[in-house]
Amino acid sequence: MPDVHPLPDLARLHAPHRRPEPVLLPSGEPGRYDSEAVDCPFVFRHRDRFYMMHIGFDGRGYQTALAASDDLLAWTRLGVILGRGTDDSRWDHVGAAGSWMLLESSDLDETPRLKKVDGRYWMIYHAYPDFGYEEGGAAMGLAWCEDEELLEWHRLPEPVMTFGDGGEWERGGLYKCCLLEHEGRYWMFYNAKEKPDWPWIEQTGLAWSDDLRVWQRHPANPLLAVSEGTFYSRYVSDPCIRFDKPSGWWVNFGFGFDGEHAQGLLALSRDLESWRILPEPSLPHGAPGEIDQTHAHKSFVVRWEGTLYHFYCACRPARPGDPAWSGAGGELRSIAVATSRPL
């Protein structure tokens, strides 16, 4: 039976005014966690400041760090919160890429704030088995923190979700996830690839848990699938799901990839299980020379004082003088923001 619910006001979900310069750049300093790239913003408010969890790439693997801001535009790095460590026997010894922290609410109009369970803040991260850029199939781990400065995190000894016990569509490895609470349990949306070697496809599935440790996959995975001839013909990835309370729709600010450009997408659902991907990119890649000339993807959205801030990873070809990641033909991979109104 067709869905008769009116679509949400799409203008509420768009941020057409892009800042021309990144809000966070790779450092370019050898030995730092972010010497070659920064990626995957996750923004929340804590103790009267904004914080951005993000990951950095140093040529060997990912590590996770925090930055802080008073205005969502000027950011100061605070330090690494999930580093590489010295125990080579751990499954995540190469490095850990923070995906999502448990939030008090999924409402798009509420400021994201961390939620404590059992007196602790919780984070899901993913980690790759081999050194290099996303080398091997990643698994997911769980970390917790009691420190109100949010700098001291502890990891469970084993992964909470692996690709080996998943479906054929995820046998190449797991990627970034989105975590929320709904109807008395945890819902984790995540993207994965079907094989280890390029060209692969990435699609998005769902798993449930009662305790954040044991996960049951949805039998109809992947719930958000690629489609030939679209801007998401190769990837439907990196879910970022918020609830648009005025319309009653769940909104996924993920991204699609067609083999050339990764661009922000919007997908809509009434029940978190049946999804409709809108046909045009919601965050298109930029024009030649702009910071997101190649890719505009890996989103996180915050509404603050009536303005929607859409954080994302922006990529363009490297130029002389850039603190650029040298892989994949050479690109500048930074964190940018677009807003719903000019600032």
Tally of DSSP helical segments:
0
How far from one another are the termini? Answer: 43 Å
Overall pLDDT level: 96
Q: What overall form do the CA principal axes indicate? A: globular
Give the topology string: H per helix, E per strand: EEEEEEEEEEEEEEEEEEEEEEEE
Q: Approximately how much helix is present in the residues?
A: under 10%
Largest sheet: 7 strands, mixed
Order the strands across the largest sheet as they lie in space: 1-24-23-22-19-18-15
Number of strands: 24
The SS-based structural class is mainly beta
Q: What is the level-2 CATH architecture name?
A: 5 Propeller
- The CATH topology turns out to be Tachylectin-2, Chain A
CATH superfamily: Glycosyl hydrolase domain, family 43
User: Beta fraction of the residues?
Assistant: 35-45%
- Please, how many domains? 1
Instruction: Please tell me how large the radius of gyration is.
Output: 18 Å
CATH class: Mainly Beta
Please give the oligomerization state of what you see: single chain
**Low-pLDDT residue intervals, each spanning 5 or more residues:** none
